[in-house]
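Side project, low priority. Logging it here so it doesn't get lost.
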Amino acid sequence: MERSLFVSIMLVGVLAGSTTTAADRPAPALQVRTYPVADLVVPIPSPTDRAPYVDKAFPKEFEALEQHLRRTTGADAWNENGSIQRYEKTLSLVVRQTAAVHEKIADELNRLRRELDAQVALEMHIITGPRNEIAALAAAFPGEFGQHESQQLLEQAKRSENLKHTMSPKVTLFSRQTANLNFDERAIAANATVSDDRRSVRLKMAEGPEKDLDLLGRVEFVMLHSGRSAAIYFPASSARSIIPPAGDATERLVLVTPRVLIVEEEEEQQKVVLLMVTPRGRIQEEEEELLGVPTSMP
């Protein structure tokens, strides 16, 4: 009895001495890794912009990517010694973090690059006219709708003598690329981002007298399924406007329909179909010739 009591006391003492708290455990080692991000921070030139393209990163793109990585990897990971440094000369990010956070960063950068594989075809109809008619047309077609409602909107606009209808040339964009279009000394800018499942498109659209999307007077955001439409209303008044518009002020309604195009995947599917169908037909013809079976072909 005394021996078993002694052994129990010894075990308790050993266990008590080996117990450690979270504060006693060593922190995960920090590693420094460099991530080339030229394809993510150099803006893709607009297909409608005639200005010369300059292959350089912009500070706002670097900052946006840095903030995005901090959010997606967890704010707690950056409270201690983690850091991100930008190097615009090499178009890269130098990150000091744990191995677990580095893995999250690599996964997120790969996800962002997969977005660039998709393209978006934008079909836009611009309807211009008096404020009261444009506002009424926008109210009659709210939210997201299909092809039937789009046709109804256009027919209703054509019946009015006061509304002008202009169809924009179809523009094809890479995901997150911006298109700038000019109509009657006004500009419409559209930025399209494809969702991860490639079924939806997030549109950032603006209208105003300037071409830069960030400088235009009013910006609208809308999320649409591929092939669906929305009527985006741009009132004459904006956050920068001081004088309220008159009742007959000219305003715009943009009917926009994005369609996701995944060219590479479609081409691969066509190749697979050809490989599956064509060899099988040849083998069947050879077997029929060996068996002496007459073919239906002359």
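Brief comment: Residues 11-15, 51-57, 239-247, 272-280 have pLDDT under 50 and may be disordered.
Revisit when time allows.
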